C-alpha cells in the first residue's frame, strides 16, 4: 500500500485529491495539510511514501517544506511530487533542485495524478521531457553562477556518462536499454552506479546535475 500525504492550501483541491487517491486499491492517504509546516510535521509523524505538495502556500512554501522533509534522517524513501499551475515556473525548478522527484500540473487528469503517485512511489522521476526539459533549460540559462561540475563526474565510466546523458533526456530504463542494445538489468546496474558515485537520490536530481554541470547543454528541440 502506498502511503500518501496531500498538502495544498485550497481546501476543496486538497479534499478532491485525497478522495481520488483514497479510492485507489493500492493507495491510502494518511494525512492532509494546508501549508509547508503541516507537510513537515505530517511527514515526520506518518513517514509516507509520497508527499503530494503544492508549491505556493502561506507560512511555509512547498520548496522549504521539501527541503526540510528530505533533509530529515527519517526521510529515506520519502518522495515529493510537487503541484504547480504553470509548466514553466521558477518555483518548480527550485523544488526539483532541493530533491523533489517530479512535478504535475494542477489541471492534470485524475488518471494522470494517480499514475504520477505510483511512478514516484516506485522511485522513478516524473519528468515529461517536453515540459521539464524546457523548464530546466530556461532557468539554467538565467542562472549567472553555474556551479562547477562535481569532481565525482570524472569517476564515471564512458558508459555511465552515456547513461547519465540519456537519463537527462528523459529516457526510461527500457528506452535506454533499447538505445544501447543492452538488457534493462544492465541499465539498472549502470543507473545505480551513477547515483552512488554522484550521491544522487533519483532521476530528477540526475537531470538537474546533468544540466547544471554542463554534461547536457541547454538548447535543442523540446520533442
TrEMBL record:
Keywords: DNA-binding, Phosphoprotein, Transcription, Transcription regulation. The modification 4-aspartylphosphate is found at residue 54. Residues 149-214 form the HTH luxR-type domain. Residues 3-121 form the Response regulatory domain. This is Response regulator transcription factor. CDD domains: LuxR_C_like (cd06170), REC_NarL-like (cd17535). The lineage of its organism: Bacteria, Bacillati, Actinomycetota, Actinomycetes, Streptosporangiales. PROSITE patterns: HTH_LUXR_1, HTH_LUXR_2, RESPONSE_REGULATORY. It holds the Pfam family GerE. The keyword Transcription regulation applies. It comes from the Bacteria.
Amino acid at each position: 500500500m502506498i502511503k500518501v500525504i496531500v498538502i495544498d492550501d485550497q481546501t476543496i483541491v486538497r479534499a478532491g485529491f485525497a478522495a481520488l487517491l483514497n479510492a485507489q486499491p493500492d493507495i491510502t492517504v494518511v494525512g492532509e495539510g494546508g501549508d509547508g509546516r503541516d507537510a513537515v510535521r505530517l511527514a515526520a509523524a506518518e513517514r509516507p511514501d509520497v508527499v503530494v505538495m503544492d508549491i505556493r502556500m502561506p507560512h511555509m512554501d512547498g520548496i522549504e517544506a521539501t527541503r526540510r522533509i528530505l533533509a530529515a534522517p527519517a526521510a529515506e524513501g520519502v518522495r515529493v511530487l510537487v503541484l504547480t499551475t504553470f509548466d514553466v515556473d521558477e518555483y518548480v525548478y527550485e523544488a526539483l533542485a532541493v530533491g523533489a522527484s517530479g512535478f504535475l500540473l494542477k489541471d492534470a487528469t485524475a488518471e494522470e495524478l494517480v499514475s504520477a503517485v505510483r511512478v514516484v512511489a516506485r522511485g522513478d522521476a516524473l519528468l515529461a521531457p517536453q515540459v521539464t526539459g524546457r523548464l530546466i533549460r530556461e532557468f539554467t540559462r538565467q542562472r549567472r553562477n553555474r556551479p562547477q561540475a562535481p569532481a565525482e563526474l570524472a569517476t564515471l565510466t564512458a558508459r555511465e556518462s552515456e547513461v547519465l546523458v540519456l537519463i537527462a533526456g528523459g529516457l526510461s530504463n527500457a528506452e535506454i536499454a533499447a538505445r544501447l542494445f543492452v538488457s534493462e538489468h544492465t541499465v539498472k546496474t549502470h543507473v545505480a552506479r551513477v547515483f552512488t558515485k554522484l550521491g544522487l537520490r533519483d532521476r530528477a536530481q540526475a537531470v538537474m546535475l546533468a544540466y547544471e554541470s554542463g554534461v547536457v547543454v541547454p538548447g535543442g528541440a523540446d520533442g
